[in-house]
Protein: ABC transporter ATP-binding protein
Amino acid sequence: MAQRSRLSETGPSASEPPATGGAWLVETRQVVKRYGRLEAVRGVSMRLVPGQIVGLLGPNGSGKSTLLKLIAGLLRPDAGEVRVMGRQPGVQTKAWVAFQPEIDHLYAWMPVRRVMDLAAAVVPDWDEGRARELLRLLHLEEHRQTPVKALSRGMRVRLKLAVTMARTAPVVLLDEPLSGIDPPSRSRIIRALIEQFRTGEQVVVLATHEVAETEGIFDRVIFLDHGQIRLDDDAQALRERFGRSIQAIMEEVYA
Ligand SMILES: Nc1ncnc2c1ncn2[C@@H]1O[C@H](COP(=O)(O)OP(=O)(O)OP(=O)(O)O)[C@@H](O)[C@H]1O
Structure:
């Protein structure tokens, strides 16, 4: 597939739906983000295409959350460029990006059912069929009347995941989506991720430093280290080249 840079283009007009076929959904070019004197992201360039689950991997503090927030438009770069569907992140691109932050962002008092109903009412790209399926797959159905504050940490994480994954936004950003979830449940959640996202139209970026359970679903992995890309490649190609798992490669890279 011939790919071309959209950075220099004006991008689709505000009324046009985003074009998901062909070119990349997200492009960053030499992006830098500083917090005071600390450079959290240092010259990151990457392009994300539809139909992939991308593992954004790296140890604590390597810049994963910062990079996701730059794409989500929650932070502005100090240098370089970020483009979502050819546009600078802002009000418009928020409709094209489903971002699940690491922090709890749901109303504590609200029952699960109301959380989903509210999201369905306010999120333009909500897919009700997908939402119902997610509630079932994530074992949230029996908690429909439970307020968020009464859910266990793992159940809250599942609910956040359901709210994010029920969207059909072309760009899905998940920041540590499995933290707090018990290991046996993780594989079910991973399966849900695969089932929901193999549409070929979305890109999913999953930031994590726990790769043992997740690496099987990655099409591509990007290793971040001190705010820079250390490795960016097709996951299977990497396994074949190094003759070991992504987890083992990662241990070596960060040793
Ligand atoms: N709001 C902030 N103010 C100051 N420094 C920050 C802020 N947010 C992040 N940092 C610093 O920026 C660096 C990158 O942080 P970031 O959260 O992006 O990394 P991460 O890879 O997501 O880490 P983790 O795996 O622990 O979530 C770290 O050194 C962190 O302490």
Notes: The chain has one domain: 26-253. Residues 154 and 180 are 5 Å apart (CA to CA).
